[in-house]
Each structure stands twice: as structure tokens, then as C-alpha cells.
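Quick one, C-alpha cells below. Sequence please?
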């Protein structure tokens, strides 16, 4: 899909009272677009990439590198303190909240594993940490303050440190009321 289309989709996913989320994601998508330009043209975009890094990372405190693969309709709620590893893959229609870290982990000799893969329609609570070569399934909910170190199945609700499943997929459908 066209990166410019993603700009408008992200814009719509973030409400009007969230101008910071809109600004960061529009800047992010434009940086991704510049990165895809052929090499002679990309050199002309280097000043924009520098402004993006300084503005978004240093001033706004959001580490969201343009190499990160993110589907459309991402919503950033109170993006301050957000750190997303550049090898992370995030699906469509996801929500990321403030002070969240999504990254890889290293061992004692400095080797690192791959970053998380986050499915579609995933809602990640504030102050969450998602680390390692793990998958978060579609429609999962990560509770605020959770530390997720293992795969999360689709539709599950997880919370805690370490995160554990509180409500497996479909459990609320099986309750009679």
C-alpha cells in the first residue's frame, strides 16, 4: 500500500484531541517514504530524516525509527516515553500507549535476538514492556504495566509481571448470563 495512504489512515485513527499522535505518525510515514526513494534522490531527503530524528526522538521522546514495519491505522495515545525497536513488526489497527517499550533482549555476550511481532487490532496498555523474539496474536490486549516475555495467543487478555493470561480467547462468549 502507498505510504501516503497510511498517513491519512493514521490521521483518522488518532482523534482530533491527539495532535501529537497525528504529528508523529504523519512524520513517521513521510520518513518511511523518503527512505524508499532511490539513492540519488534519498540524499535530498537526509535533512528531513535528521529533523525527524531530532524532533520525534529527542524533543518528543518517542523512539520510532523509520525502518520499523507498521500497518495502517496505528493510534498513539500519549506517546511520551515510547520506544519501539526498529525490527519490530506491528499490524493494522493497533494502539500504543505512553511509556511502552517494545524491543529485543540481549544475552551476556552481547548477542541479541529478534524483536516482537505484533498482530492486528492489538491494544497495548501504558508502561508495558514487550521484549524478545515473540508474537502477540491478533485482537490481544496487553494490560498496563505488563512485562511480556512469551507469546500471547490471539484474542487473549494478559497482564502482570511477568504477564500471564487472564482471559483466553472466547471465554467471555462461553459465559451464560
Amino acid at each position: 500500500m502507498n505510504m501516503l495512504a497510511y498517513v491519512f489512515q493514521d490521521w483518522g485513527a488518532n482523534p482530533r484531541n491527539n495532535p501529537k499522535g497525528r504529528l508523529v505518525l504523519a512524520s513517521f510515514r513521510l520518513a518511511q517514504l523518503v527512505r524508499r526513494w532511490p539513492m540519488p534522490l534519498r540524499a535530498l531527503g537526509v535533512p528531513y530524516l535528521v529533523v525527524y530524528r531530532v524532533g520525534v526522538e529527542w524533543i518528543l521522546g518517542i523512539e520510532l525509527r523509520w525502518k520499523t514495519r507498521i500497518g495502517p491505522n496505528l493510534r498513539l495515545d500519549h506517546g511520551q516515553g515510547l520506544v519501539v525497536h526498529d525490527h519490530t513488526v506491528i499490524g493494522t489497527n493497533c494502539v500504543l500507549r505512553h511509556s511502552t517499550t517494545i524491543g529485543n533482549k540481549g544475552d551476556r555476550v552481547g548477542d541479541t535476538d529478534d524483536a516482537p511481532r505484533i498482530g492486528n487490532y492489538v491494544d497495548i496498555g501504558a508502561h508495558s514492556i514487550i521484549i524478545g523474539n515473540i508474537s502477540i496474536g491478533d485482537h490481544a490486549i496487553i494490560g498496563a504495566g505488563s512485562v511480556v516475555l512469551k507469546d500471547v495467543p490471539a484474542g487473549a487478555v494478559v497482564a502482570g509481571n511477568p504477564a500471564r493470561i487472564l482471559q483466553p480467547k472466547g471465554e467471555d462468549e462461553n459465559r451464560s448470563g
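The chain has one domain: 3-167. DSSP finds four helices and 15 strands in the chain.
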